[in-house]
């Protein structure tokens, strides 16, 4: 069955890629600033130590160039816009429970109606409030959410708004036109209010496809560029007149400024129906239509005649409706086919969604006549119009931890399946299937069909508690495959079968109980035999199989920070007569759980917790041996400690729950402490000696034993829950051995009928070696004693951390302190962890310690362990509250109270308002609540739906105050209290509004462990499927998968061929490891290793390596986006910071390594045949694997390569690819941006440098090969900045001097040019004046000398030809020129041009 990890795509995929897919603009409740790292990033938060003035909630940020008209419009609009804070309290239909923010706007101020999106009004239970412009707040409730289109209507009480005049925005769908300028007014990106501008670009876009979950369809959308983001869902889109012309719904995810708005014709009709108290009828023929252009319709068979007719009827239309999905078994099934082009409906040409909706809504229960074109042929059909509300679920049932309702039209349309079947909207509790929370369709329960919700309820009502029944199901992503599982029905932790029905009058969902749970049938003894190991030569391994049982633990609520709701592993039977089993505490973390024990893979019996060790990671559980008729054997436990290098037989269970055996050697026995989980404290093993072995099976097997050749169990092989990785949010699990001698005292007490009451030192220790303790003040005498007492390990123990005392406890002055070195306890030298076991039965210990370099004698009290385990859990407003458990005390320095938040449910008030796991609650409404009793007393006084104050302290000791609103309808207070008189060991209490309690389950929304967050980020909750047997209907053989298998997404497969119980691969690995271990343990090797690792040279190398590592880390961490921007304000990439740090030699070692690597690569590329080597390695690898496979099959009958093949091929995780591609994009953009910055001379010096580099390279490339030019460029790039840095003062002084010289020369040239220019201008001006005067004189004299015409004859010229001088007949000489110059009249200016003076004076008039 495909799960969400490897899901098949739905039948009808969106043509839009994932990166281009639009997204709903909800704003998750994750942005409010809260103090402390462990505080959730959501909720209403106030800083206790300072007062924050209440800024206006709606702060209009108009576009910079908005006109006064737009500003006036926005001022009026914002008074009608509200910020919506809401929760969907439980999973329903397409959406899981959640908390989020969005926007809405008032559309009827008198009646109190708010318009928003359908994905805001929620298909399931809704709880929320809205905030107006003036910070007034009121509750809201949904009165209508459309079954298909993305709009909903909320209602509020107008009388609750007292300090501002309510104004409604009018809806004008007809005003939406292409080119209209618009403003989107809403709660964008978590801001109080933002105004985004845009212009409508399209009116005929198909509805956006959001992928999985709710999607609108059968409507056109309006497209515009506005760049809205999270939180703007439900915002009004207004025009300049202040009218709402569309409803904001979604936008692009890839950063493009494209938004999608819902037209308002259908929302307006729904609002008018509500205002007129009329029903909102909605019709459907269960067909999805798409707008497609005429050219595509022609290819589908639209004839030219019909195209002409449609264009004539609707001249402005360019597209028509085409059938996209026709649901099976719907009204149109068999009548309409995908690809049919819609021509007419009831004789009317139809090209718009709005008109089709109007006809369908008015024809519910009637018949429509449709004319279609199919492949060029006319097709006429008659269809009965169904009621859309009837196939939209308005109720769900919760039973055995899961939630169910009839399959909705939304989900059916999304996956193109028939609208029928029981849908699991939250697969939790007994119905936890294959690690997926939703998407399952139940076909039968207990081999009885469940076609609808009513039948399903009848079947479930008849099944007794704790029954195991067959469940048949399919997933919507893979309807071809039928899954079959065995589930365990839980009607004791979840006794009620509760039906929730939507009430549109009150806006709530009304809960009613149906039937009473049938008591569990008495258990019946069963018989079975254990498997026999074929081919295993170790008799001890074959016998120990009869001592293994499978242990499954199911937890109804998350406590103690444990991340999973169920876990399965293997335990070892230590007393078959009493039914005692020892199992890892990573499998059974606390006793508020159901334990089932499977014997011989056949008999299933119940178990109960007998003992949980506070430090050593094991739990002892018990089953009734009278119910098991099988040859179960008690495993003999060794009383002597194993030693390093000793041979042993490893028997474990791999990921397929198959027994694997390997003879191996104990490589090490060392003191370990499992790393603490920083984000959310949870149980971890400390102060223990862990055993490691040299077989590769040890990492594959989470449970098993180390057994000697005599069949005595030397150690348990257990899984240890570690820390959660911050990047992947996956929990680390360690596999280590625990020697059996430490278990024997506890086991003997339990076998004797006594409950172990251990006492422990409230501290965590770690090993220190003699070189360290000598410096810290331990005398040489004690060092010699340590060497004699423990020749194999010269070590002492130092106190790493002291457990925090109870909140009401007092510290003892004789207690240990962090940094103390423990020498003796009760006179015994402590050099091994096992020697601390003397504390278990002592009230106090006489300790000799070294503190501050001095020896001190102390009497150290021990701590009883009964107080460390959780015995009470309170669920309040969706938060799980408990007394701080042991792991909290181990990691914190002070307990602020005994009210500790351990987990919280999605969609709850605790989630919405930010009450996070790891917080301590210290007061309620100013009254201190040091413990759970006081807390219950105070919160019981708070009326329902009323705000109250919680004073809290984060795990980082930061005090803060959170305001929350109580919600008893969906989240009533309940409690689990340990009560050994009850069959389950716990008693459930439900608190009612009067404060009194009664037995039974809480009456609100379903709360399950799967829906809880224990802190520290999301985890792979469960990783465990409930199904014990899963049959694949399409497989040729039956495959069995465990109910609680780790990594349950992987099906069990057949293991590789075995030899002596091991695969060929394991044999090779084990042999190689054994040989390496022999070499490494040789004295010569040890001496050489010690010389190399502890000598002065090694210390120097370590220091230098550490410095180099730090510089490389510093260079890697420099990849952050710089605060500076380009000249045009464009942000830069993180590679700008990286290359600046690299080339500025801020980390010289890292830069030098980079430079050397680049140079070596250039030389290697030049002189080494790298490409040939790649091909050579490839053909050698392929040839060796092929030859090994062929020879292996020929010689041994099995291929060697096949034996070495991994169970699962490596895949590059999607997150890694996304990070890599993002990094590549940043790198490319770095070069693109830098090229443009250089090209457009943002830094002229850089542009000049680039010019010189390109100019020089242009000529060098003619004589220097490419690799040489690359080498030269690399040296310049790296060494240029280094030379400048080393000679910065000298270079800067020279540059400054050159700048001064250039400036002085530039000034001088400027002055000279100015002087010359001034003289030239004066000369030109003077000459121009002279020539103008002479021209005027010539013109005047010419007019005076021209006589009138007499008798038609011209007068005699006044100037005779003889008056002109003769033309020169020889070249002029200098003497002649001087003579001529002397003849010039004195009144002629000396600076007159020579060519004018040479002509002599003008003739007299």
Automatic annotation (TrEMBL):
Location relative to the cell: Endoplasmic reticulum membrane
InterPro entries (UniProt xref): PDZ, PDZ-like_dom, PDZ_sf, Peptidase_S1_PA, Peptidase_S1C, Reticulon
GO biological process, one term: apoptotic process
Region described as Disordered: spans on this chain: 1-45, 992-1024, 1041-1065, 1344-1405
Gene Ontology cellular-component terms listed: endoplasmic reticulum membrane
Superkingdom of the source species: Eukaryota
Protein name: Reticulon-like protein
TM annotation in the entry: 1145-1165, 1177-1196, 1244-1261, 1266-1285
Main location: endoplasmic reticulum
Regions of compositional bias (Acidic residues) in chain numbering: 1011-1024
Species annotation: Endocarpon pusillum
Gene Ontology terms, MF aspect: serine-type endopeptidase activity
Biased composition (Basic and acidic residues): 1372-1382
Domain Reticulon intervals: 1139-1336
Function recorded in the entry: Nuclear serine protease which mediates apoptosis.
Coiled coil: none
Keywords: Apoptosis, Endoplasmic reticulum, Membrane, Repeat, Transmembrane, Transmembrane helix
Keyword Phosphoprotein: no
Protein family per UniProt: Belongs to the peptidase S1C family.
